[in-house]
Design brief:
Elements (H helix, E strand, L loop, with lengths): L10 E2 L7 E6 L9 E9 L1 E3 L12 E12 L12 E8 L10 H15 L6 E7 L3 E5 L10 E2 L2 H12 L9 H13 L6 E8 L8 H11 L4 E7 L5 H10 L4 E4 L31 H18 L6 E6 L3 E10 L3 E2 L5 E3 L2 E5 L6 E11 L11 E10 L12 E8 L8 H25 L3 H18 L2 H7 L3 E5 L4 E4 L5 H9 L20 E2 L6 E2 L17
Parallel strand pairs: 4-20, 6-7, 6-10, 10-11, 11-12
Antiparallel strand pairs: 1-2, 2-3, 3-5, 5-18, 7-8, 7-9, 13-17, 13-19, 14-15, 14-18, 16-17, 19-20, 21-22, 23-24
Helix pairs in contact: 1-2, 1-6, 3-4, 5-10, 7-8, 7-10, 8-9
């Protein structure tokens, strides 16, 4: 692994007394060289009453936010193209041709388009998923399935095979993933291994445990993006697949439910559209083809195969949690590898992009190594990679805390509040959807109203648009909503599928006020505490 040095690069944004410690570490700027920057935020003062072992169980959790930004990777031309493997899995069960052939027709078109865009040399396979799994391209002995290198000829053959797919049989997603794992792990030298899975159904009839066992086998072997189409897929099941395999979930919309609703078609923070809806007039085939191209393109653009956050701690500290919080929420704690006095936390493959992570360190303030020390270094963070010596990595970051006997009135600042709100937003959204699923309207209105208020405060117009497919919003600022008279269960699946999406924190001086909403004297609406009422335009004076 690359050694990035040990020079501390910790700065303070709000002063050492009560603000979060922040640092932005970077290696020397080298023209034409790709680089990764790292910034860290952690509350400097930590509450440890009496220092006699800290919290119950001898531990105290210190929360750290880590922002990683990679740039220059997309413009880098490697001396030797990295090895890539791609498997496209298409649900070909009978329901894909019912009540019409539109779903299977859209799947044929999208699969062919995805195959046609694969770079030369990428090893790929097309899998037909029914109650079994079968490789339909390349055609080999079924006992020895394999991938084939992309070339003009193999891509043309693969596209023809995709256009010939037929709907028949049942659904057994666990068998599809098992075959996908076999195909992708057959080439251990492939630095980038990606799967794309489309289904209109779910594993059922006692197969849930089988699916979990297969996911255990697949975890860490490849990344899988999952798409649901039609009305029979299970959003929670696809979320489980994508979460375990560190991919995205997408919902394909036949008739965008938000047509005519405020905010319809609003883009998410990642540029994709609310509810998976496409441009006006975009049909099922166009939407699915666009999503396939987007997901395969995102995978093939990645040129840095692995970036690891190495956390060095002493005997007084350990890693309690590690998760990605932007652009999607992914729990990565299970990927941690203990290596002597440090913990290695893989972050996956990278292109030019920015991601945010939450790290929680469990620290014992009463440990002999720090007992009696008012201010202590509890950890250091360093980025490491094995495959790209040309990438400039940041310097090491030090995490220091000062123990205090009284709880300080601080948190991680705007970024910490921002992601805490998104955690609450996802919880409220999924709780509201669950309540609707069991026809508990009062609970649904309470939870979805809370979700509307949080999305409003976050200015997440895309999430608001998806919520409006389920509720009529009477006052977003206070979360007053009514469940619509007729709610399509498909809208619930779409909302659940995208509920883990987040936007990055607003930059300093940007975003909306942290103050609570105020009531306008003219129109009696609860609105943001800006200069003018956003409902009627009346100047807000004393109300603010």
């Amino acid at each position: 692994m690359t050694d990035t040095g040990r020079e501390p690069a910790a700065g303070r944004a709000d002063g050492p007394e009560n603000g979060p410690q922040t640092g932005a570490a970077a290696g020397p700027a080298v023209p034409g060289r790709p680089r990764v920057d790292m910034s860290v935020e952690a509350a400097h003062e930590q509450y440890a009453p009496g220092r006699g072992g800290g919290a119950p169980g001898g531990g105290h959790e210190v929360q750290v936010l880590v922002r990683l930004r990679a740039e220059g990777l997309d413009a880098t031309v490697p001396r030797r193209p990295p090895e890539r493997s791609e498997v496209i899995v298409i649900d070909c069960s009978g329901s894909m041709g019912h009540p019409s052939v539109r779903k299977i027709a859209a799947a044929r078109r999208a699969a062919a388009a995805a195959i046609e865009m694969l770079p030369d040399g990428t090893h790929f396979a097309l899998v037909e998923g029914t109650d079994t799994a079968r490789v339909v391209h390349p055609r080999r002995d079924p006992a020895s399935p394999a991938t084939v290198a992309a070339s003009p000829a193999s891509r043309a053959d693969g596209a023809r095979a995709a256009r010939a797919l037929e709907a028949h049989g049942g659904t057994r997603i666990s068998s599809w993933l098992s075959l996908t794992r076999r195909l992708l792990t057959a080439r251990p030298g492939a630095a980038f291994r990606h799967a794309l899975l489309l289904t209109d159904g779910m594993d059922q009839h006692g197969r849930a445990e089988e699916l979990r066992r297969v996911l255990d086998d697949c975890a860490g072997e490849f990344v899988c993006d999952a798409l649901g189409i039609g009305e029979g897929w299970d959003a929670e099941q696809l979320r489980e697949i994508a979460d375990r395999l560190h991919g995205r979930v997408e919902a394909v919309v036949d008739d965008p439910p938000d047509a005519g609703l405020p905010g319809a078609g609003s883009p998410d923070a990642d540029g994709s559209r609310a509810d998976g809806a496409g441009a006006d007039g975009e049909g099922l085939g166009e939407q699915l083809t666009r999503l396939f191209r987007e997901l395969v393109g995102a995978s093939t653009r990645r040129t840095l195969a692995g970036l690891t956050l190495a956390v060095h701690t002493g005997p007084q500290a350990s890693v309690a949690l590690f998760r990605q919080v932007n652009p999607t929420v992914l729990d990565l704690t299970g990927t941690a590898v203990r290596d002597g006095g440090r913990t290695l936390l893989p972050t996956g493959a990278w292109s030019d992009e920015t991601r945010w992570y939450e790290l929680r360190l469990r620290v014992d303030p009463g440990h002999p190594s720090v007992r009696g020390v008012r201010e202590a270094r509890i950890a250091s963070l360093r980025l490491e990679t094995e495959d790209a010596a040309g990438v400039v990595l940041p310097r090491e970051e030090q995490i220091t805390v000062r123990w205090v006997a009284e709880a300080p009135p601080t948190d991680l600042g705007a970024a910490g509040r921002h992601f805490r709100r998104y955690t609450e937003l996802e919880e409220a959204t999924r709780a509201g959807c669950a309540a609707l699923g069991r026809h508990d309207v009062p609970s649904a209105e309470r939870e979805l109203g809370r979700a509307v208020r949080l999305a409003y405060e976050l200015n997440d117009t895309a999430h608001l648009a998806r919520l409006r497919a389920l509720v009529t919003v009477e006052n977003a600022a206070v979360g007053l909503v009514r469940v619509r008279d007729a709610v399509d269960p498909g809208h619930l699946r779409k909302l659940i599928a995208r509920s883990s999406r987040t936007a990055p924190p607003p930059r300093a001086g940007g975003g909306h006020s942290e103050k609570p909403p105020v009531c306008c004297r003219r129109c009696a609406e609860w609105v943001r505490p800006d200069r003018f009422c956003e409902s009627c335009g009346h100047p807000l004076g004393e109300e603010r």
